[in-house]
Amino acid sequence: FYMIAVALTIVFKPTSAPARDPFDGRKLVDALKGSFWVLLMFALVIGGIFTGLFTVTEAASVGAVIAFLVALFRGKLRKGDLWKVAGETTRSTAMLYFLIIGALVISFFLSTSGLPEAMTKALNHSGLSGILVVCIMILIYLLLGMVMDSFAIMIATAPLVVPVIVSYGYDPIWWGIIMVVTVEMGVVTPPFGLNLFTMSSIAPDVPLSTVYRGVAPFIAADLVKLALLIVFPSLSLWLMRAAFI
Question: What digits encode the pLDDT tens for the residues 180-202?
């Protein structure tokens, strides 16, 4: 969808893209040679997942080990690099665990209070259709995505929202994909999307209004993608079913 958005933007506004250099097969070959190790790691990780050699979770560890061995083999590791990487990984892991622990605490209190059940019962007796409830949830997640971290939103709200969605007969995996797409849309949606301000800080000479216009085609592509996922839920599930069922 993003490729289509870029292509349509260039068609309707040719000045938005500079002229391309003539195709150079030699440069392509050189680029492929330089990407050999990355392609090898990708093939081993994805191949291992689809052949059942290891699970998706284990694949992350396999990828990390392969990346370490490649860096070691190519002599790219300098003194102190390993400790630096280990420190960054430890900090990231600690942050994630604090978020997970917080989400578990919230989930415990929600389940103890009976709020998810009460909310589900209230919505089921409200007369609202399932698609309307989904649209309301999408709007809420879009607004939350503008001002909060994506991961924090999902782990904090899932215990409350998922039972409601399931009670309307929707697949929880389908809803998980809808939720991720919506939250990531919020991150780049004007006027408060967090990534918009990040991009503006990286290129301070570019006005924020220009950044807003620049993301418009991609937001349109996301809206089309979201609409298709809602109208045709099988689009979000066919790859998983084809790969693992």
Answer: 888 888 888 877 777 787 777 78
